[in-house]
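Give me the fold.
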Amino acid sequence: MEKTAFVTGGSRGIGRGIAQRLGRDGYDVAITYNTKLDEAQTLQKELMEMGRRCFIYQASMENDEVPESVTLQAIADLGRLDVMICCAGLTFHNNLRKLTAEDIDLVYKLDYRSYMLCAKISAKHMTEQKIRGSIVFITSTRGLRSYPEDPLYGGMKAALNRACESLALELSSYGIRVNAVAPGATAIRGNFSSEELSSSGFSKQIPLGRLGTPSEVAGLISYLVSDEASYMTGTVLRLDGGLILPSMPADAGGEMEPSWTRLPTRMI
């Protein structure tokens, strides 16, 4: 029986890398995109050339009815659902003194609420069909380490990490595993050459000296949803090149700005 996967935010960045890898692993795939239809169609063509079925949906995941309805559509088109990957989202920086209620609602709906609703529909389907499936949240090291101007995005990612543990307990008796992957600074464009990955100014903050890639996150996902990881649930796996390991410099000579004051412009 062919395995199937639904990847929200699957048309670009980390989500695209995950969809590509699952296609190579033999999964039929459904993905969502927000505005870039051409990117979704290019990926669809690529997966179909592998002999895989691929369904694409425009979905603004922050809208109230969308997460549940698009997940139901993916299940209907795929015929069943073995793997749910919640990846859609945007990175936000929010200064508390300039924060608006609209900012809070958007980040909550996109980066937390949509994940929970997609997981809800997926889990309901898996339990009813007796599928020992896998649900994975793409979170962030920003849910594990504090930065300034990050009360919402980092807070929602921290909430997802915590929710993953509760969902794992709730669904374990059905054989459904729930895990989270927390990437650090990850390149989402370019050719991902070693020179490109290490040339970012922020790469100097990373112990391994470079940014991560979508394919590296996808490789971890491939393992996590496989039978080889069948004893793993309720975990948050960090993939960040050692980014959040260092503490404050022991001796900065009074000249170095504390690393925690510099928030990278783009992190998952």
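The longest strand covers residues 27-33.
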